[in-house]
Write a structure and sequence with these properties.
Strand content: 15-25%
Structural class: alpha/beta
CATH topology of the largest domain: DHBP synthase
CATH class of the largest domain: Alpha Beta
Strand order of the largest sheet: 2-3-7-4-6-5-9-10
Distance between the termini: 24 Å
Number of domains: 2
Helix content: 25-40%
Number of strands: 14
CATH architecture of the largest domain: Alpha-Beta Complex
Largest sheet: 8 strands, mixed
Bound molecules: threonylcarbamoyladenylate, magnesium ion
Oligomer: single chain
Order of helices and strands: EHEEHEHHEEHEHEEEHEHEEHEH
């Protein structure tokens, strides 16, 4: 664990952001590494701090639907319906970008990702920023490129030490990144699954004029999105997805040799050996809330292998399953 990073209050954070600094901020999904979206030099600091290629677009966080027109050149009716149904909340909409707005944050793309976070501290921060003339905060997840997203202020301090000041908003209530919906192709296309599910999006639009059901990532020609890269969200230890039965069988064979294996499974295992075991909740939302903290904890305890029981096939598990499959692909 590193030395504690500077902890800020909302007004201090807003002042630093208005002055072009990078600040880690809480949201209901994961912590973000924020900077003024309209300040290209501040945005460049996000990319260098994170170690992320500068052509990967960032999400711009705004107070609500009223601010969307500052960044979006055009808001299709179905996108407006999604904003009204799910903002503030864990939903990012990709919209055509106003050419003069937030070009650096958009990584040069002609589109822009917008989200109004629901976390009360994030909302208070956005309000304090607006009072200082900052209308949008560009923020990717506050982790080094390719690594597990932070869901606690301590995770951010573990990643960046004292180099990044933190606005602490406690543990993130949702725990996995927002659902991303591309709204630039005439119908909603889900680029990244999250807490808000495809069926909820479809139900919201069912009686509107843009009722096309969301497609899945597989059928969509997705624009560049690092959250959609195969190997992403990876802990240091090698992660494998297995059935509960496979895990139990392998543990029985290994016996005491299973010491450096960490296990996250719904099945209650019979094993007396010293491996690290955390029980996966039966509830998908509870699992999402703790998933990244569990993976970080396994890394911190020196696990070299993490065996995770494959989540159930139901749609409520889509977000968790997606993050685990990417972690296993790393
Ligand atoms: O929950 C979240 O979305 C968190 C919190 C901090 O808001 N943010 C987050 O950001 O997960 P990040 O950068 O780690 O992932 C955002 C994803 C990336 O895959 C990025 O490429 C994609 O959104 N994205 C952003 N703008 C885009 C655009 N214009 N077109 C396509 N993808 C975009
Ligand atoms: Mg990320």
């Amino acid at each position: 664990m590193n030395t504690p990073a500077a902890l800020l209050d909302v007004n201090q954070a807003a002042t630093l952001l208005a002055a072009g600094q990078v600040v880690a901020i809480p949201t209901e999904t994961v912590y973000g590494l924020a900077a003024n979206a309209d300040d290209a030099r501040a945005v460049a600091k996000i990319f260098s701090t994170k170690g992320r290629p500068a052509d990967h677009p960032l999400i711009v966080h705004i107070q609500g639907a009223e601010q969307a027109a500052l960044y979006a050149a055009h808001i299709p009716a179905f996108a407006a319906q999604l904003m009204h149904a799910f903002w503030p909340g864990p939903l990012t909409l990709i919209l055509p970008r106003r050419p003069e707005a937030a070009a650096a944050a958009a990584g040069g793309q002609s589109s822009i990702g917008l989200r109004a976070p629901a976390h009360p501290t994030a909302q208070a921060l956005l309000q304090a920023c607006a009072a200082q003339g900052v209308t949008g905060l560009a923020a990717p997840s506050a982790n080094r490129f390719g690594k597990v997203s932070p869901t606690r202020a301590q995770h951010v301090a573990d990643e960046f030490g004292t180099t990044v000041p933190i606005l602490d908003g406690g543990a993130c209530a949702i725990g996995i990144e927002s659902t991303i919906v591309d709204c630039t192709r005439g119908a909603p296309i889900i680029l990244r699954p999250g807490h808000i599910r495809a069926e909820q999006i479809t139900a919201t639009l069912a009686d509107g004029h843009a009722a096309a059901p969301p497609a899945t990532t597989a059928s969509a020609p997705a624009p560049k999105a690092s959250g959609t890269l195969e190997a992403h969200y990876a802990p240091r230890a090698k992660l494998r997805l297995m059935t509960g039965l496979m895990i139990q069988t392998a543990l029985d064979v290994l016996g005491a040799d299973a010491k450096h294996i960490a296990i996250y499974s719904r099945l209650v295992l019979r094993s007396a050996s010293a491996q690290l075991v955390r029980r996966m909740p039966d509830d998908a939302e509870e699992t999402a809330r703790q998933l990244f903290a569990v993976l970080r904890e396994f890394d911190a305890q020196g696990a070299t292998l993490i065996w995770v029981e494959t989540p159930p096939a139901d749609a409520v598990w889509d977000g968790v399953r997606d993050r685990l499959q990417r972690a296993a692909a790393a």
